Amino acid sequence: MSRSAPTARPDEDRLWRLDLVYSIVLLVAAVSAVALAAADTGLFARGHGPGTAGFFIVFGLFAIATGFPHPVFGHVSFDRVAQVTSILVLGPVDAAWVNGLASLIYPWQRLRLGVSLRLVVTASLHNAGLMMFVILGSGLLYEYLGGAIPVTTLDLGAGLLLLALVTSMQVINDAGMMFMLYLRNMDPRQVFNRFTTVVEYVSGAAGIVLAVAFSSQTLSYFVLLVLVLAAGMLVIMKYALMRVRLEKLVDARTEELRIQAEEFERQATHDKLTGLPNRRHADSYLQQQVDLAQRKNRRGALALADIDHFKRINDGYSHAIGDQVLERVAQILSDGCRGTDFVARYGGEEFLLYFPDTGVDRAAQVCSELRKAVQQSDWTDIAPDFDVTISFGLAEIRNAKHSRSILDEADMRLYRAKRAGRNRVIAA
Fold first, then answer.
1. Are residues 233 and 362 in the same domain?
2. Reported pTM
3. In whole angstroms, what separates CA 152 from the centre of its chain?
4. 247 and 292 co-located in one domain
5. Segment (H or E) for 27
6. Do residue 189 and residue 221 come from a single domain?
7. Could you list the pLDDT tens digit for every one of the 428 residues in the chain?
8. 3-state secondary structure at position 307
């Protein structure tokens, strides 16, 4: 069994050109290797004629057709059965071109399924080239190690050599597919899947049984065995398709549960109205920053901000208008801070801002800009004479051991800003 090339990825035009070049080079190299090997042995060196080769081409096409989608990419087929059988009957050279031809022909039926011509061409060239290398390389290695062709009996020594044959086919096939995934900027480890690997080895074992039957049993017995095996392949294909569907359902449900868990976590740590971190999250974050400053001797500035006269807004206009004000102020504060700064809704109309690796003087400048942005924002969509201001109180971490002391210091300065007339920043 083997895997055909993936058929779709982002940046399709660029990746397709790269795939096409790789596939052409692979096929040309494979044909050259087979031609070089055939120069020494010739075609039909084992005494079999075109009729036997034709049978293996048809059998190879059937084995490819009885496949199923790979859990991650591409198509998994049972052609390992036909490949192993043909190696042990025809020999590596004839088996290589016979199965290469089947792999070259099969992808073209995808045109009727709506697959684009360029993807069909790439898959056809790639699969043919890779299969020829898999069969020729593993078959010649098997012969070099002393493997018998044809295989008529099985014993421990023959079994070990046949295991080496099937394993080398697996290694060469996976190496080729991993390289293609690398070219397509995908994770090469996606090649490996326990279920498909087990099926590949079972397919190899079935191919060995067929080869022994072809060489040592009557034609009628061999045909019956082929029919039984074909029925088994169809059953496994149905099971595999069902398994793939179930895996997709499980993956979809798992992803749905993951998204729900993330949403629950977000609801527990973020304010629903503004989308900012809530007080629980802010307290935890601030204590982490205090601890970090203690260990690393780092600076950090904290600001508490409070919308001025917010109760009047709720009482004079409505709580719905108050919510609009909170949302807009939260957006202004977030937009005016760096990506590394922390902005949270600390409760009611109060916000907490933290500026890591920043002194209180620089933080005061940022807060002054934020104060101006709130005051100068256009609020006339709420009411013609509507305006909003905000006050800030700041504190620096210094050598504090607990976030509470920093919060108390910033809160005290916020209170002073309110007492001094509001719409101002007090940092000392």
1. no
2. 0.55
3. 46
4. no
5. helix 12-41
6. yes
7. 455 544 444 455 666 678 888 889 999 999 999 999 888 777 776 778 788 889 889 988 888 888 766 655 566 778 888 899 999 999 999 999 999 999 999 889 888 888 888 888 888 998 899 999 999 999 999 999 999 898 888 889 888 999 999 999 989 888 888 887 777 777 777 777 777 788 788 888 888 988 888 888 887 888 888 888 778 777 777 776 777 778 778 878 888 888 777 777 767 788 989 999 999 999 999 999 988 888 888 889 999 999 999 999 998 889 999 999 999 999 999 999 999 999 999 989 999 999 999 999 999 999 999 999 999 999 988 888 889 999 999 999 876 667 888 999 999 999 999 999 999 999 97
8. strand
Residues 324 and 223 in one domain: no
Domain ranges, residue 287 = 279-426
Among 200, 349, 396, 409, the active-site one is 349
Residue 267 domain flag:
no
Number of domains in the chain: 2
Indicate whether 297 and 241 sit together in one domain.
no
- Buried (b) or exposed (e) across 287-321, using 16+ Cβ within 10 A? eebbeebeeeeebbbbbbbbbbbbeebbeeeeeee
Q: Is residue 3 part of a domain?
A: no
Mark whether 47 and 104 lie in a shared domain: yes
Residue 227: is it exposed, middle or buried by C-beta count within 10 angstroms (0-12/13-18/19+)? exposed
- 265 labelled catalytic: no
For residues 100 and 24, membership in a common domain is answered with yes
Same domain? 292 vs 246:
no
* Residue 116 contacts residue 164 (beta carbons within 8 Å): no
